[in-house]
From TrEMBL:
Location of this chain's protein in the cell: Membrane
Record flagged with keyword DNA repair: no
GO terms of molecular function: carbohydrate:proton symporter activity
Protein name: Hexose transporter 1
Regions that span the bilayer: 20-41, 140-160, 167-186, 206-229
Gene3D superfamilies, sorted: MFS general substrate transporter like domains
Bilayer topology term: Multi-pass membrane protein
Annotated InterPro entries: MFS_dom, MFS_sugar_transport-like, MFS_Sugar_Transporters, MFS_trans_sf, Sugar/inositol_transpt
GO cellular component, one term: membrane
Main location: membrane
Length: 326
C-alpha cells in the first residue's frame, strides 16, 4: 500500500529526477529493516533441535505456546532421530511421496499467482484507466486495492486455526471465480471497443468486483498457500520443499507480470474469463487437499503418509490391533 501511495504522490515528478527513481530508491528502507530484523530473529524449535540445542528449543516453544510443550518437543526430537539416519538427499527429495508433495506444493504456488491477483496489483492503472478513462484514477484505485488487501487479510489471521486452511481456500477460490465472471461479463457488455455504453453503474460495479476479488484473495489463497506449503513437507526436506515451491511462486509471478498486459490489449475484459478458469482449478485443488488444521508438523507428515497409502496404513493399523487383541 505504501508503494502504491508513493507511486501516486510521485506520478507527476518530471525529469531529471523522475518519480520512478524515488520509488525504486525507497526500497532501500525495507531492505535495511529486513537485515536488522534478521539479526534478532530466533531459531525455530526444530532448527535448534537439529543443532543439538534441545533446551533452547524448549525455551522457544514456551514463548510460542501457553500449554505444556514437552510432548511436542518429544515429537520433534523423535522425528529428528528418525531423520538423522539419512541425509535427505535431492534424489530422495525428488522421488516417492516427497515428489508427490513437491507436485502439490508447486501446483498450489503456481495457482496462487495464476488466480489473477497480480493482474490487478501490477496492471491496475491500465484496467482502471480503461474503466474511467483517466490515468490518475488508475493509480488512485490501485491504492484503494492496496488498502483493501491489508484489511481483508485480517480475517484470515483469526480464521486460519478455526475454519482451517482448505476451507478458507475453497471460499476464496469461489469468491475470486465469481468476481472474475462479473468483471468479464460487464466488460464484455459495457466496455467493448473502449466505449462505456452502460452508464456509471457499470464502472462502479466493475470496481466493486475488483475489490471483491482482492478481499477473497487476501483471506484465502493469498496467505493460505504459504501456510500450507510450509507445513506439508517432512522436517529433513522442508527447506528444499519450501524453497522449491517459492521458486514456483515466482515463476507464476513472471507469467502473470508478462501475459495479462498482452491479453488485455488483445482481448479486453474477456481476459478475466481466463481467471474464472484458473480459479476453478484453485477450487478443485482446495477441495482435493487434506486439512492440516490442529495438527503438529509431525502429525501432518503422518497424515500425508496415510493419504498417499490408505490401503497400506489400514492394513498396518489392523495388524497392530490384532497384536494387542488376539
Amino acid at each position: 500500500m505504501i508503494a502504491f501511495l508513493l507511486a501516486l504522490v510521485l506520478e507527476d515528478v518530471e525529469k531529471p529526477y523522475g518519480g520512478w527513481r524515488w520509488v525504486i530508491a525507497a526500497q532501500i528502507v525495507p531492505g535495511i529493516m529486513l537485515v536488522i530484523g534478521g539479526i534478532f530473529m530466533p531459531g525455530s524449535p526444530r532448527y535448534l533441535v537439529q543443532q543439538g540445542k534441545p533446551r533452547q528449543a524448549l525455551r522457544c516453544l514456551l514463548l510460542l505456546r501457553s500449554e505444556d510443550v514437552r510432548e511436542e518437543l518429544a515429537e520433534i526430537c523423535q522425528e529428528h532421530e528418525m531423520d538423522s539416519t539419512t541425509k535427505g538427499t535431492w534424489v530422495e527429495f525428488c522421488s516417492g511421496d516427497n515428489l508427490k508433495l513437491l507436485g502439490i506444493g508447486v501446483s498450489i504456488q503456481l495457482l496462487q499467482q495464476l488466480c489473477g491477483i497480480n493482474a490487478f496489483m501490477y496492471d491496475g492503472p491500465l484496467i482502471f484507466d480503461k474503466l474511467f478513462g483517466n490515468e490518475h484514477a488508475g493509480h488512485l484505485f490501485t491504492l484503494v486495492s492496496g488498502v483493501v488487501i491489508i484489511f481483508a487479510t485480517i480475517p484470515g489471521l483469526f480464521l486460519v486455526d478455526k475454519c482451517g486452511r482448505t476451507v478458507l481456500m475453497k471460499w476464496s477460490a469461489a469468491g475470486m471465480m465469481f468476481c472474475s465472471g462479473v468483471l468479464a461479463s460487464i466488460g464484455d457488455l459495457c466496455f467493448e471497443d473502449d466505449i462505456g455504453t452502460c452508464g456509471p453503474w457499470a464502472k462502479w460495479t466493475a470496481t466493486l468486483a475488483i475489490c471483491g476479488f482482492t478481499v477473497n484473495f487476501a483471506y484465502g489463497w493469498g496467505p493460505m498457500a504459504w501456510v500450507y506449503c510450509a507445513e506439508m513437507f517432512p522436517q529433513k526436506h522442508r527447506t528444499k520443499g519450501v524453497a522449491a515451491t517459492t521458486d514456483a511462486n515466482w515463476v507464476g509471478n513472471i507469467l502473470i507480470a508478462f501475459l495479462p498486459p498482452l491479453m488485455f490489449a488483445n482481448w479486453g475484459f474477456n481476459m478475466f474469463w481466463v481467471f474464472v478458469g484458473t480459479n476453478c482449478l484453485c477450487l478443485f485443488c482446495a477441495m482435493s487437499l487434506p486439512e492440516t488444521k490442529d495438527k503438529s508438523l509431525e502429525e501432518i507428515t503422518l497424515m500425508f503418509n496415510h493419504w498417499f497409502h490408505p490401503g497400506e496404513c489400514k492394513a498396518t493399523e489392523d495388524a497392530d490391533v490384532d497384536s494387542v487383541h488376539p
